[in-house]
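User: Modeling request: complex.
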Amino acid sequence: KQEVTQIPAALSVPEGENLVLNCSFTDSAIYNLQWFRQDPGKGLTSLLLIQSSQREQTSGRLNASLDKSSGRSTLYIAASQPGDSATYLCAVRGDSNYQLIWGAGTKLIIKP
Amino acid sequence: EAGVAQSPRYKIIEKRQSVAFWCNPISGHATLYWYQQILGQGPKLLIQFQNNGVVDDSQLPKDRFSAERLKGVDSTLKIQPAKLEDSAVYLCASSLSGGTLSPLHFGNGTRLTVT
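Assistant: Request completed. Predicted assembly structure:
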């Protein structure tokens, strides 16, 4: 059974720093992995999607990497801004039943 | 384009009462999902519709939860009777198709508190 873990549960950094969020999964038989952002009281917004055959995806200041064999993905945020404060969740889609399995998220606070 | 609409935004009920949530997906989206998100956890899929047919309801507690998507557009999720552990945010999402590359678009959710 696939399990997705995100550590730490919360992270606070000063504005301008580069940071890395971690996501690990137990079953490497995945179809793709997605990173989402959730603002308080809001739904989830898709940030990046990495196919199992890819190593990384980039969008603006965000870069997501995938190491399927080790069951890990990272989300790199460059030059962090207060507006980046949110909860970041990763979700893995299995390559058999295609269900999305979610991590619990990392709550990120960027201090001005 | 208009996003996924959900109502109400908040609901407080007593245990054993019933409650219903409504979702209007993005126009033209064939696939609709209901998720339950308990505080501090990731979303858990309750049910997935493809048009007005159920694709996956394996994690829906069918003794108390029900959902329908009449005419393949709007959907309602009902809980009867509610339990304390049903306190959560209920998220509706839609996608153009059920395909693995079709991105999910989420509504803002309904926060349910059961006292």
